[in-house]
Amino acid sequence: MSECSIRSAVVTVNDPADLLVAIRAIAEKNSTHIILFDQDRMAGRKHAEAALAHAARSCSEQRMIARTFEMEALLYAAGSRQCTVGREFGIHKGENHCYVCLCPDVPEVWDALCAHITIIPVVEEMSSSEKRARLMKLFSITETELAVIGEERMNELVLERVALLEVYR
To answer: Using an 8 Å Cβ cutoff, are 158 and 141 in contact?
Structure first.
């Protein structure tokens, strides 16, 4: 898989299925993959990068769990083999803060996507107690683990969980 490009975006979704149909049409027309990760469930941009890298390797080695590259990336983001869990890491009804990923990057696609989403400048990831609690629950991270490695390294634990999906195949 060629180099991917990742940008932050905001999109208000009335009907997730309608948006995904439009996104898939843009992707197919431009021979690329478009993945939308829910930033509120992600441990930063590195989490999105890791999910894409694992999905690309899985695809190139012809050992994907999912039928599509997009779902494979969502499964890796979730650190799960279950598509229902992976879907939770994508868009949802209402306002979405997301990472928009193009694999491979096709510059014209960004213009086409602007009819559906609003690209925003990269902002520093903020850590909140709410997001901390959400990530701990999603990735089964215990207070004991955090005490051992330090709170500031929680994102590394999430990336470890993502990588463990390779082992659980």
So the answer is: yes
Structural domain range at position 110: 5-168
Q: Using CA atoms, how far apart are residues 156 and 153, in angstroms rounded to an integer? A: 5
pTM for this prediction: 0.89
Task: Give the domain CATH number at 135.
Answer: 3.30.2380.10
Overall domain count for the chain: 1
Question: What is the three-class DSSP state of 28?
Answer: helix
The encoded tokens of residue 11 equal 């999109």
The whole-angstrom distance between residue 108's C-alpha and the CA centroid of its chain comes to 21
**Mean pLDDT for the chain overall:** 91
Cα angle 111-116-121, degrees, rounded to a multiple of 5: 65
Distance CA 23, CA 157 (A): 31
Which residue's entry shows tokens 């990588």?
A: 163
